[in-house]
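== Item description ==
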Amino acid sequence: MHRSRTAAAPVAAMFIVLAGCSATTTPSATSDDSPASAPAPSSSGSTAPVTVASELEAPWSIAFLNGTPLMSERDSGRILEIGDDGSLREIGVVGGIAGTGEGGLLGLTIGVEGALYAYSTGASGNRIQRFEVDGTAGTYTLGDAETILDRIPAAGYHNGGRLSFGPDGMLYATTGDAGLAQAAQDPESLAGKILRMTPDGEVPADNPTAGSLVYSSGHRNPQGIAWADDGTLYAAEFGQDRWDELNIIEPGGNYGWPVVEGIADDSDFTDPILQWEPSEASPSGMTYADGALYIANLRGQVLRTVPVDDPAAATDLFSREYGRIRDVVLAPDGRLWFATSNTDGRGQPGESDDRIISIELTTE
């Protein structure tokens, strides 16, 4: 299905309370991630961001278990608990990590039953595993791994890796094309897709194709997914040479890669609602809060805010203040947390990198 880019009336969304943010009023465009310059000092003042944790090693994903923040380290396979004082405590290590480049321990999410789900790269490809977590805050320990899905194509590039439970109770996973571009158009391949499954890794009865985990196809390297209040699913995606994308994901939708990239006006594919040039984006994690999407950007080195009722009114926050930004999540207390990604081999780490930053949101 083809979707054209349109703008609706502005929304009364949440905005970050912060001085010195840069803003843009028109969408621009992105492609593969690339090395970034060193981050500049952060803004100061009573509304300045707060450093939650520092001196991290390639953080990739943040999830909250019963209000306690957990973080994945891509290269080490460690899952860390973050204390109120910023201290780090290892609750366990995901075994069998065989990732190089963009592979490793990637997305984390928490199931309704309290189990921890992790997306990681093993010897036979990417996999999704479930772990029981024992104890309470300050004593959490990771249980044994239960693999619910494996042999997802993996490579040093285009690994996808985001996990999230939707409002329907199903588990969604983003997969990259693993360098096999045509696999994104192959309905039998799990590469270049958004997958939808039950918490046990089974195919839901109402998936677009009977017996298939594939929810949407034609993706190159999606790494951000989030749902608006009305249940609309959005995904942010790395492009190749021309355009990175923000898409509305529809069941069974085909988003064009590698046949088209960005807005193509081709009735065989669904167009993005926004696109950005490579130097301005490389979108990774994404979250939603009260009318707006917040998108972490690596090469663009910004936290981008996109009102869902008026996507063209997107604003750029913290432009090059913190370097590359990998993930952004809404904390249980309503603050926004984001993780930098300057120690992953493509950035230039500052003295305290990598960091997790917390910022206040307020309704205007």
Summary: The domain at 14-363 is CATH 2.120.10.30 (Neuraminidase).
